[in-house]
Amino acid sequence: MSYNTIISAQQLNEIINNDNVRVFDCRFSLKDPQGGLKSYQEGHLPNAQFADMDTQLSSAMTETSGRHPLPEADVFINQLKQWGINNDTQVVAYDDISGAFAARLWWMMRWVGHDDVAVLDGGMQKWTDAGYGVSQDEVNFAQGNFSGTANMQWLVDIDTVQSELAAGQITLIDARSADRFTAKDQTTDPVPGHVPGSTSLPFPGNLTKDGLFESPSVIKQRFTNTIKDQPITNVVNMCGSGVTACHNLLAQAVAGLPPTKIFIGSWSQWIRDPARPVATGEE
């Protein structure tokens, strides 16, 4: 049996020691670049490898990019091989905030054609709540032979976002918090606010109060209420830097909706050019 959206702690515990399973710790802190690695070293799921948001799930920033640009596809595919991943490997990603960062690895693997990848529902907290153990051991696997091709149709660049949004051809969904969207939060983003014409749909709304994903029907209703009369294929997801937008993409997959697109540069790229318009408030 393969998992390609979410996996429960119980389900993961049943397969975690299988030879064809690879687990990745995606914990990350924007305020402390080494925070995720420190947490990993203090204790992680058995057999888990660490996936670094800044250096392995992103490339270096440029003068015009957002905060977490995508690495070149061949660079990422080579990283997957170094992690011991083959085309038939079941991959599981987790973090400590209900998949907000793990979803980035989930989406990137699907981007290069690896579908057997899932996010641990409820993250590390649900793993430890269930009484399953953690480890401090470093893990290394023999190099894998994964081969894949990136689906560039899933990406939308900043110029396309600006032109198609102005023409009413896309629904741009922003996964950041409502306070960042409206500019009530004046500290997190260098320029507070949002892309004019975008819609706020914070990623935590995909979750129950216990930090687990809502049912597929609830999630589907959440997105269809937002998309309204636009085709689902016209949806573009964004956030601060193309990371938590992947949580909305994962939620859409949990709900059985077809794949939609992502604006990887997101808000952090949009505001690099002061000539681009900025909106505040709820509209």
Give the count of helical stretches.
Answer: 10
CATH topology of the largest domain: Oxidized Rhodanese, domain 1
Portion in strands: 5-15%
Strand order of the largest sheet: 1-5-4-2-3
Low-confidence segments, ≥5 residues, pLDDT <50? none
Question: What separation lies between the terminal Cα atoms?
Answer: 44 Å
Superfamily at the CATH H level of the largest domain? Answer: Rhodanese-like domain
Describe this structure in words.
This protein is of the alpha/beta class. It has 2 domains: 6-150, 3-Layer(aba) Sandwich (Oxidized Rhodanese, domain 1), CATH 3.40.250; 153-270, Rhodanese-like domain (Oxidized Rhodanese, domain 1), CATH 3.40.250.10. The chain is 29% helix and 11% strand. The protein contains 10 helices and 9 strands. The chain has helices at 9-15, 35-42, 73-82, 102-111, 123-129, 158-166, 178-182, 216-227, 245-254, 266-270; strands at 6-7, 21-25, 48-50, 90-94, 117-120, 171-174, 199-200, 235-238, 261-262. A 5-stranded parallel β-sheet has the order 1-5-4-2-3, sandwiched between helices. The chain has a 4-stranded parallel β-sheet with strand order 7-6-8-9, covered by helices on one side. Strand 6 (171-174), helix 7 (178-182) and strand 7 form a beta-alpha-beta unit. Helix 4 (102-111) packs across helix 9 (245-254). The protein is globular. The chain starts with 5 loop residues before the first strand and ends in a 13-residue tail after the last helix. The mean pLDDT is 97.
